[in-house]
Design brief:
By secondary structure, the chain is mostly helical. It has one domain. Helices cover about 55% and strands about 0% of the residues. The protein has seven helices and no strands. The longest helix is centred in the middle third of the chain and has 21 residues. The radius of gyration is 19 Å and the shape is globular.
């Protein structure tokens, strides 16, 4: 998997340099930014795990990736939401069968509620924090005091 990530070439400005997220000597992933996690989960992980894991485990993880890819689209049909909701229950059950109980925390359970949130609030891309995080990065450059940035903004 780490060799695959080292070999990935992605379009410019699609993510940060994904290749730098793998430790050069140890085969270990370094911490990722939220946008990198999103791209990894929706597009790259599906390709990266092929022929590495057992088939049943691979299918469960791919189902989770396909779910996140489907809900992150800009246009989602109402009919598709019912199918997504049914499929995520099956995927979570498969994950419970193949992963240890320590893998499951509250964030795994919250995946089940994402389809309901899409029905209430609309597509997910409207609620991403990435633009705000980028803007805060721009604002932080104007802070004169790194200790108390809120008091030194121009």
């Amino acid at each position: 998997m780490c060799d695959f990530i080292r070999s990935v070439k992605d379009p410019s400005r699609y993510t940060s340099n994904i290749r730098k997220l793998v430790h050069p000597k140890e085969n270990k992933m370094l911490p990722m930014k939220p946008r990198d996690c999103d791209v990894m989960l929706t597009t790259m992980l599906v390709v990266g795990i092929r022929n590495i894991l057992p088939e049943k485990t691979e299918r469960a993880i791919m189902g989770l990736c396909f779910f996140f890819n489907a809900i992150s689209q800009k246009v989602i049909k109402e009919e598709l939401l019912a199918d997504l909701e049914d499929n995520i229950y099956v995927v979570i059950s498969q994950l419970e069968a193949y992963f240890p109980p320590t893998f499951f925390d509250i964030s795994i359970h919250l995946i089940i509620h994402l389809v309901k949130e899409i029905r209430y609030l609309g597509p997910i891309f409207l609620h991403h924090m990435y633009p705000y995080e980028r803007f805060m990065s721009t604002l932080n450059k104007y802070a004169k005091s790194r200790v108390h940035p809120e008091g030194s903004m121009v």
